[in-house]
Amino acid sequence: MPDRHEAGMKTRRAVLGDAHVDRAEAAKTAFDAPFQDLITEGAWGTVWSRPDLSRRDRSLITLALLAGLGHWDEVAMHVRATVNTGATPDEVREAMLHVAIYAGVPAANHALKIVRSTYADMGIEL
After folding, report:
1. Which residue segment(s) compose the domain that 27 sits in?
2. Pick from 29, 33, 116, 41: nearest CA to 72
3. What's the CA gap between 51 and 73, in Å, rounded?
4. Are 1 and 50 in contact (CB under 8 A)?
């Protein structure tokens, strides 16, 4: 596998977009740089860069996990990333149905509000 940081940055940019990553990099400080490196290398360079699941599948799994755990800012960020991963609004809705059954209706209900609002902000009609 190539350098995990390099691979992670490439995957992170492909999924989240250059603008998002550029903002995150510009906001990085000496204090949180080790955390940002951990995310880039661990999440993006190791897990998201593996070949056995598509980015679309990883996107849907990530959204379901984030919704189930109540990480609302991250839900919005990963909804925005669906334009790059290929996960459709219908597929995201289906993932939220799984969240309702396996993680709870309140989590899915709140996540759906965020999903709808994020898609509206993106100019995507549902």
Report:
1. 1-52
2. 116
3. 27
4. no
Query: Read out DSSP for 74-103?
Result: HHHHHHHHHHHH---HHHHHHHHHHHHHHT
Give me 11's structure tokens. 């995957």
3-state helix, strand, coil in the chain (%, to 5): 80, 0, 20
Residues 36 and 87 in one domain: no
Structure tokens at 73: 């800012």
Q: What is the per-residue pLDDT across 51-107, written as a single tens digit (0 to 9) for each?
A: 999 999 999 999 999 999 999 999 999 999 999 999 999 999 999 999 999 999 999
> Are 76 and 126 part of one and the same domain?
yes
